[in-house]
Design goal:
The protein is mostly helical. It has one domain. Helix content is 69%, strand content 0%. The protein contains 9 helices and no strands. Helix 1 packs across helix 4 and helix 1 crosses helix 5. The radius of gyration is 18 Å and the shape is globular. 34% of the residues are buried.
Length: 213
């Protein structure tokens, strides 16, 4: 569906915020756990230009799921490499989940104090930001390499299964690309069917929880 100029000015800041928060959170957690690689690469910043990935941004722009430029992590700098890598990976989706809730909270407060109307530009940015942050959160929780979910799963698996898991991970990017391509090219929205229910559920939950404001 083509997006007009007004729609472009709404979706771009929403995407930039979601990706920046996600990647900054990875960099921040890695640095806290002893790996300065991302910081030295200039990724411990809230500047969106340091984090946007062309293909990942286009996917978010077209389908509301995507990714940012991967944050460099050297797990050998961690005290507990597998566990800490899982923490770094989980921090990204968690930050988007919390940002989605924060956007609803800000939206509700601005409406409550008549600082915003449903017809305003920032209302649209915040509403779309809610959906994009939840989309980025749940998309990255899919346990396929290189998404965050694959690192989280790796940290939870028994150590004896890790060699086989690493071998199977080599095929994950092709499976992921196939799932992404099925939507626009084959009109089979597998990812939409997977991600749609949790996104809708938490969107409604956040709005209902804050409905008292």
């Amino acid at each position: 569906m083509p997006i007009d100029l007004q729609g472009l000015f709404i979706i771009l800041p929403a995407i930039a915020i979601a990706i920046t928060v996600h990647e900054f959170s990875h960099a921040w957690m890695a640095n806290r756990l002893g790996d300065p690689t991302a910081m030295l690469a200039g990724r411990l910043t809230l500047n969106p230009m340091a984090h946007l990935d062309l293909i990942g941004t286009l996917c978010l722009f077209l389908a509301f799921f995507g990714w940012g430029k991967p944050v460099p992590v050297n797990s050998s700098n961690f005290k507990h490499p597998i566990r800490d890598d899982m923490f770094v990976s989980a921090c990204g989706p968690l930050s988007n989940f919390l940002t989605a809730f924060l956007m609803v909270l800000i939206l509700k407060l601005l409406l409550r104090f008549h600082l915003l109307t449903p017809q305003s530009y920032f209302y649209d940015v915040l509403r779309l930001g809610l959906i994009i942050n939840l989309s980025l959160c749940f998309f990255n929780l899919i346990p396929l390499y290189p998404l965050d979910g694959s690192h989280i799963l790796k940290g939870l698996l028994p150590r004896s299964t890790l060699p086989e898991y690493e071998r199977l991970s080599h095929y994950s990017p092709f499976i992921l690309l196939g799932l992404v391509a099925m939507g626009p090219f084959f009109q089979v929205s597998v990812l939409g069917n997977i991600l749609g229910p949790p996104i809708s559920f938490f969107s409604r939950l956040f709005i209902s929880v804050l409905s008292v404001i």
